[in-house]
Design goal:
Blueprint: H1 8-16, H2 30-40, H3 49-61
Helix pairs in contact: 2-3
Length: 76
C-alpha cells in the first residue's frame, strides 16, 4: 500500500485479506471490505477502519486524488 498517512493496522488487514495493490480496491465498497475484515477477526475493530477504507477506495479510484482528502478526519 502506498497511500499517504494510511493506518498500518488497516493496511495489514487488507494485505491479510489478499489485497496487495491499491488498484485492487477500485470499485469495491468500503463497507464490504470492512465486513470481510470483520469476518476474519474475533476482536472488535477500531473506529478508524471504515474511514480508512473509504479513503483507500477513493485513492484507488482517483487519477489525481485531492491531497486534502488524504486525512482520515475527512472521511468520518
Amino acid at each position: 500500500m502506498r497511500i499517504t498517512r494510511f493506518p498500518v493496522d488497516v493496511a495489514r488487514e487488507l494485505l491479510d485479506a489478499g489485497y496487495y495493490r491499491v488498484d485492487q480496491l477500485a470499485g469495491r465498497s468500503p463497507e464490504t471490505l470492512l465486513s470481510e475484515i470483520k469476518a476474519r477477526n474475533k476482536a472488535a475493530l477500531p473506529a478508524h477502519f471504515l474511514p480508512a477504507l473509504k479513503m483507500a477506495v477513493y485513492f484507488a479510484e482517483s487519477d489525481s486524488p485531492d491531497p486534502k482528502k488524504l486525512f482520515l478526519d475527512q472521511w468520518q
